[in-house]
Amino acid sequence: MTTWFYPTTKIYFVGDRVRGVVCHGQRCQTPDGLSTGDSLAHVQRVYGLTFALTPPGTGHQQLIYPTAEGGNCSMEFDFDLGVITKISLGCD
Fold this sequence. Notes:
By secondary structure, the protein is mainly beta. It has one helix at residues 40-47; strands spanning 2-5, 9-14, 17-23, 51-53, 60-66, 73-80, 83-91.
């Protein structure tokens, strides 16, 4: 796997294909207008309820949204104290 690093973004490649993108800066935004700093409740209003992870003993949460039925990609939102800190898109 090859990784390209930018100030607020990492792009992961396998061969000549993008495997994932992780954005954690102020300028991260989804096509539907969600950005880092938006609330967990706002994400759920825009994308609906989905699978959520909360590691025990932490205040961190993660919401995972499949990008298409039967697909192998997902969009993930990481939260700290209820606000988005990182937006990721990954494919298996």
